[in-house]
Amino acid sequence: MFMMVFRLAPVSVLVYPLLVPISWLMTLLSYVMSPIIAGISMATGSNQVQWLGWFYTHDASLDGGIEQNKDGYDPNATGFKLWWQRVSWIARNPAYRFNAYVLGYSAEASIVILESGTGWPPVKHWVVIELKGGKRIFSYRNGSRWFGWKPEPIGGRHQLKSKPF
Questions:
Q1: What is the reported pLDDT for 119?
Q2: What is the structure's pLDDT at 7?
Q3: CA atoms of 75 and 6, how far apart (whole Å)
Q4: Are 99 and 90 in contact (CB under 8 A)?
């Protein structure tokens, strides 16, 4: 199956290993920056710190856990508890905006041209997507391992994914 994916999307298969270390670096920086970003948001009274937005998710504010009713996120939190929830949200979605906008692609008019395996639960799930303009990207997911770009767009973007474990 890999050879078929390579034939359909050779550029993305070859470029992907070069992008992964950049993604990992931004992910690590997100963890380091999360207390600072949460602190700035608390000091400014805003649940967004736009100029540091590359370090967290692109489809929700720093209160995304509250907005999306995730377990453990208290809508009445203030002070340290609210700061910690924001730190936790960044750590849950590290560098998502960077991976979606800098290393990812617009999902506008994208179409799946190959899908093989089981999508959910993910078992040897291969996908090749053709983007508007003809460029192609791939995705491979098997259990918790994930390589390539997310085939289901979030916030209108196919974000780079790299989860080897």
A1: 85
A2: 97
A3: 46
A4: no
Long-range contacts: 121-126, Cβ < 8 Å, 24+? 122/146, 124/1, 126/1, 126/2, 126/5
Q: Are 56 and 97 in contact (CB under 8 A)?
A: yes
Residue found under tokens 């979030």: 154
- Residue reference for tokens 């995705």: 139
The three state secondary structure string of 86-98 is HHHHHHHCCCHHH
pLDDT along the chain (165 residues), means of 10: 97 98 97 98 96 94 95 96 98 96 98 93 95 97 95 96 90
Residue 108 burial by Cβ neighbours in a 10 Å radius (0-12, 13-18, 19+): exposed
